[in-house]
Amino acid sequence: MQFAIIGLGKFGKSVARELYKLGNQVVGMDIDEKKVEQCSHFLSASLILDATDKAALRELNIQEFDAVLVSIGESLESNLLCTLNLIDLKAQQIWAKAKNAAHHAILSSLGIQHIVRPENDMGILVGQAMNCPSVTHCIPLGSNLFLIHFLVQFQATITLGMLKKRYKDIVITAIQRGEELISNPDDDTEIQPQDRLLIIGALNNLRTLTSELK
């Protein structure tokens, strides 16, 4: 796949490096020549470019990229102008970094569906991890539903069927047991210590469940 990263600060640089490591074609661009030079060794192509210039983006055929990340963090105006340019040029999929809640609201009003606030999002994840160390990942799905990755540490024998009777509104979609991945486990499956469960459910139910199984 081919991705464009606009803005090569800490966040944009991190995303670009990871996409490149995963075997993708990654084009990075920034108005700051120094930032472009620092990232050139892990980019398929690196460009010194002002992304508020619609003509410059048009010359890149930006609409042909599978996705574009707007990671301009220093200037709210530049971030929004770049985003508007991408919308006008019909970029396939736009991801945008928001500085704060107000910026997030503006991007959302423009129809941007993929909005990230790195510090805020990471703060939520750290808080969730501190609240329940056995939950290694927690992803909000909307409507008070969450997807969690949970490490079982209790010793008692219990089956998925027993859990379902007690917690009717949770779904355990998979169990990772060592190197084995059990997809769509049936009700007779016994949960063992050190199993890692992938669970979907309402927040209150998940809190009660994880308290019981930790």
UniProtKB/TrEMBL annotation:
Checking PANTHER family in the record gives: KTR SYSTEM POTASSIUM UPTAKE PROTEIN C, POTASSIUM CHANNEL PROTEIN 2-RELATED-RELATED
Domain RCK C-terminal, chain residue ranges per copy: 134-214
User: Which GO-annotated molecular functions does the record name?
Assistant: monoatomic cation transmembrane transporter activity
Coiled coil region boundaries: none
The identity of this protein, by name, is: K+ transporter
- Gene Ontology biological-process entries: potassium ion transport
Where does the RCK N-terminal domain start and stop, copy by copy? 1-116
